Amino acid sequence: MRRAILISLLAALLQTGVSAQTETHVDFFAGVDLSYRDIHWNKLMEVLVNVTPGVRMRLGDSWQLAGQVIVPVYNDYGEYYSKVRLGIVSVAKEFQFGSNHLKLSGGMFSGERYGLDAKWMLPVNSWLAFDAQLGLTGRWSPQLGEGSLPDRLTGWGGARIWLDRWATEGRIRAGRFIYADWGVIGEGYRHFKHCSVGAFGQWGNKGGLGAGFKVIVLLPPYKRTDRTVNVRPASSFLLSHNVMADSYSLRMYNTDPEENEREGVFRKAEWGPYSLGR
Amino acid sequence: MRSFASLRMTVLWLLVLALPLGATAQQYTGMSGLIHTPSADMDPEGVARIGGHFLNKAFTPDATFDDGDGKYHTGDFYLSITPFKWVEVGYTFTLRKRGQNYFGEGTGNVGYYGKDRYISLKFRPLEEGKWWPAIAIGANDPITTASEGNAPFSNFYIAATKHFDWGGHRLGLHAAYRYWRREYNAKWTGLVGAVTYSPPFDHNRGRLIAEWTGADVNVGLDYLLFGHVLLQLCLQNGKYFSGGLCFYLNLN
């Protein structure tokens, strides 16, 4: 089963050759990754601040190369997080079949995962869409230089509802996540002009009930000039807070350094929050 | 002592002279409201607040903010948002004194190494009309399974607010019934209320507040500086100062 999925994903990735090199655009960007944990009653917060410079090459014909480096600048989390290391290196290709959007990615993803990944979305109408993700990954720790074989099958399926009048999105998805736990996540987002605010509730077979909130702030400049080479800040800042301080339950990796719930993963999708623009 | 008296005089002068007074706040929680008591006022849709507040030791619950030598002054910080005009959500951290590394070997140092955190929720099912008041229901720290020593700010309320305008002046009448979960906060359970006034020359930015908390009379003011900085100052029973600042931003 895993071998069949691996072969299918690789075949689809390689099916289309890299063409139209003249359309290549390169973006250099840098953001700040703020993590904090509140797991001690007698300590205010433990904070980890990383600068995350990255690069994205849009190669034409919907191919893309992306990379990101993690540079710690403040660390209460311990020695393990103190090294400069690779965050993401991925190659991706987007497809569109009718209303279906498909993105295949391969490489090193966030969350110390590497392997292959497929994301799919089908907007049914202006207010309903279905989406899913399927991945076959292993763990790779750049700090330790060790990992595991890419034999973990993860994936989820879900549905999204978009209420245009209130710029509000409801989302539910269920599946298997990177720590081999099963569960369901319900999310609601209110999208504003340059900011999205959401709350989530979840249940996992290992972590139980959980809840939290997310804030996604789009960073200026809001109007970008698409030159061949662009140097800019990261597109957004994401704050995610889990009130149970649970950083393991129902976690998934990102295949793109700038992936978030506001801007999505499909460049051509114009559904729901992705139609709002920056 | 002298500096505190001086601070008190400064606040009283501000209350009297700085009449340019609009945005509404039960600001120590990060939520709209009055000073210690809630109201049915809500921030406009899309408003987010991030800020902090100095809490006089007379202002906080009588238990859990006592380090053995008596109650202590503290502070809090918070984040809140009004995603729709009928709901507001906030998240607040209040600093508590603890021994450093309290659950470990300990260092002998005592300081603000601990905190209480809580979520606030407020719903307004009825918006204010010409002939009827706004009605809101809400809670601070509504869900807890912890012991008596925890959730010191846990309370539930229903509030009504009606404003009257004449010649640019605005008078607000506010009443609420609150239930506090913890026995040591019973003095604040019951009917509470307030009167607010905004002058015509600064109608939308500030207001004066006089409120009854069930145990204290608080007077104070809100003022929105530079369109984005909301200041609240108050004197509890005419003596004890509390106050804070928040960044106030409409995300729409």
Describe the overall structure.
The complex is a heterodimer of chains A (about 280) and B (about 250). By secondary structure, chain A is mainly beta. Helices cover about 5% and strands about 55% of the residues of chain A. Chain A contains 1 helix and 15 strands, in the order αβββββββββββββββ. Mean pLDDT of chain A is about 90; it is low at about 15-20. By secondary structure, chain B is mainly β. Chain B has one domain: Porin. Chain B is built from 1 helix and 12 strands, in the order αββββββββββββ. Chain B has one helix at about 1-15; strands at about 45-55, 75-85, 85-100, 110-125, 135-140, 155-165, 170-180, 190-200, 205-210, 215-225, 230-235, 240-250. In chain B, strands 1-2-3-4-5-6-7-8-9-10-11-12 form a 12-stranded antiparallel beta barrel. The interface of A and B includes residues 38 and 243 of A.
Please, how many helices of chain A? 1
Any idea what the radius of gyration of chain B is? 18 Å
CATH topology of chain B: Porin
Secondary structure category of chain B: mainly beta
Q: How many domains of chain A, as an integer?
A: 1
Portion of residues in beta strands of chain B equals over 45%
Q: What is the share of helical residues of chain B?
A: under 10%
**Termini separation of chain B:** 46 Å
> Which CATH top level class of chain A fits?
Mainly Beta
Strand order of the largest sheet of chain B: 1-2-3-4-5-6-7-8-9-10-11-12
Largest sheet of chain B: 12 strands, antiparallel, barrel
Shape, principal axes of CA atoms of chain A: globular
**H/E element sequence of chain A:** HEEEEEEEEEEEEEEE
Q: What is the average per-residue confidence, as pLDDT of chain B, rounded to a whole number? A: 87
Structural class of chain A: mainly beta
